[in-house]
Design brief:
Blueprint lengths: L2 E9 L9 H18 L4 E4 L9 H6 L2 H9 L4 E2 L3 H6 L2 H7 L6 E3 L3 E3 L8 E2 L1 E6 L2 E9 L3 H6 L2 E3 L2 H13 L4 E7 L2 H10 L5 E3 L11 E3 L2 E4 L7 E10 L4 E11 L7 H17 L3 E5 L12 H14 L3 E5 L10 E4 H7 L6 E7 H11 L2 H4 L16 E4 L2 E6 L5 E8 L2 E2 L5 E7 L9 H4 L2 E4 L5 H10 L3
Parallel strand pairs: 1-2, 2-3, 3-4, 4-6, 8-10, 10-11, 11-13, 17-24
Antiparallel strand pairs: 1-14, 5-9, 7-8, 12-13, 14-15, 16-18, 17-20, 19-24, 19-25, 21-22, 22-23
Length: about 450
């Protein structure tokens, strides 16, 4: 048997967690040296959500710093995640990869006129070690968000089989780069024919040895640069068939840091700092922020939401603000520091009785003290809810908890079956906290994030 090996290394869901990037870099540089010594080729891939505006370097460089880091390690291909796709404006995403030395593969993203973006291709045929590897890229189709930004996104389940067939006719091996999440990857493996490997992302699973579904190997390597993924495929040159395939998620926790990568991140952070120095406004007095009691800055953010979204009521959890603002100049960097979350505003239509239920639950110890990461929230704790356009009175009962006694809107009690437009954070509409919001009529506002609304409010504050 004359077999040859295909070697892939990949990263997924870094989320601008640069603390680990120098270790990832150290690992990949060592692998590169090894391959050069042996004279064996390999491919290096990124599966998206490398850029996350939670980090000031990504915010300040609009993700271009992330692209430089990928260039430096000589990545071959990348696909986009939802963080690149829907936390950057259309213009920002159009320009994100202008200096990329790797190719971006996304098969399901289009302009609204149905044409493909110039910076992405649906697939690539790459000859590796004398074997033709067909690589397809897809990303999670958050249709509502993409359309608000001026994109059109298609579900891979609609078209992927015909694309696999097209790629398979030109390839020996077919690999899917997927930012779809493990559940979707498993479904794709079951429903699509002709995929050898799905290299996955989005749901942050650590599949230390991959998993086989039907005849497709699925792999994914966690988040935040804690692991580097590796895929090895053994291909028989005579029968033209894959005879073995393996996947690993390798921890980089104990690796020595790459000093060059560290220095590069420091320099990019200095560049980003300069971009974020722009002064938004000047405060004549400090604006305090508290997580567990009412405070001025949380009230300002609730008011900004109500006004921006044209709603009856604004509501936001105080934990969304990590700190207050001192007297003096307020820069974009200050606002990013206190409100780093990639969270967008949203207007939800709720009935009075639903709103009252939400308010009661939002004041419970379970929610107020909840330490939570996800859905865009990057804070420490949820904190109490701040309201604008609502007066909520509560009383501390014998059980030690606060219970809502009255809720007034414009001086009148909430009417149970009357509808109210409520402006809040988009993360509350995904069903984890308040199921009433998941099924309600809603409107999302993109690409603005909560810090942009706070900037707008403070700029125009009289």
């Amino acid at each position: 048997m004359t077999s040859r090996t295909l070697q892939f290394y990949y990263t997924n869901d870094l989320h601008s967690h640069f603390a680990n990037w120098s270790k990832v870099s150290s690992y990949l540089k060592e692998k590169k040296r090894l391959h050069e010594l042996q004279g064996t080729p390999y491919l290096l891939l990124d599966l998206g959500d490398h850029s996350d505006k939670v980090h000031p370097m990504t915010e300040g460089t609009l993700g271009k710093g992330n692209v430089q880091l990928l260039n430096e390690l000589e990545y071959d291909y990348a696909t986009i995640g939802n963080n690149e796709g829907i936390t950057f404006s259309k213009k920002e995403l159009e320009e994100l990869y202008s200096d990329a030395k790797f190719e971006v593969i996304v098969a399901n993203l289009y302009h609204q006129d149905g044409t493909r973006p110039s910076w992405a291709v649906p697939y690539k045929i790459h000859e590796l070690n004398g074997i033709k590897v067909g690589i397809i890229g897809v990303t999670i189709p958050y249709e509502q968000f993409y359309s608000l930004l001026g994109w059109q996104i298609d579900s891979p389940f609609h078209f992927l089989q015909s694309l696999i067939d097209e790629v398979r006719s030109q390839s020996d091996v077919v690999v899917l780069m997927s930012h779809m999440g493990l559940g979707n990857d498993e479904q794709l493996a079951r429903e699509m024919n002709g995929l050898d490997v799905i290299i996955g992302a989005h749901t942050h699973h650590v599949l230390k040895h991959g998993m086989l579904v039907e005849d497709t190997l699925i792999t994914q390597s966690g988040k935040n640069g804690n692991y580097v993924g590796e895929v090895s495929i053994c291909f028989d040159m005579e029968t033209k068939k894959v005879v073995e395939k393996e996947a690993y998620a390798i921890t980089v926790r104990n690796r020595k840091e790459d000093e060059e990568a560290k220095a590069m991140i420091q320099q990019l952070s200095i560049d980003a700092h300069k971009m974020l120095e722009e002064v938004v406004c000047r405060l004549e007095q400090p604006l305090e922020s508290e997580w567990f009691q009412r405070s001025v800055l949380a009230d300002e953010l609730a008011a900004a939401l109500r006004e921006w979204c044209g709603a009856d009521i604004g509501m936001i959890n105080a934990g969304m603000l990590l700190d207050g603002l001192p007297e003096g100049n307020v820069s974009r960097e200050d606002l990013h520091r206190i409100c780093p979350h990639p969270v967008n505003p949203c207007k939800v239509v709720l009935k009075g009785n639903e709103l009252r239920e939400i308010i009661s639950y939002s004041m419970s110890d379970e929610i107020v003290n909840l330490s939570f990461k996800g859905l865009g929230f990057r804070g420490e704790v949820m904190g109490i809810m701040a309201f604008d356009g609502l007066e909520v009175t509560s009383v501390k009962m014998d059980d030690g908890l606060y219970h809502v006694t009255d809720v007034f809107h414009n001086g009148k009690q909430l009417v149970s079956d009357e509808e109210y437009a409520v402006a809040t954070a988009d993360m509350f509409t995904f069903g984890k906290f308040y199921p009433q919001m998941k099924h309600a009529k809603k409107k999302y506002f993109l690409p603005e994030m909560l810090r942009d609304l706070l900037a707008w409010r403070l700029e125009n504050r009289h």
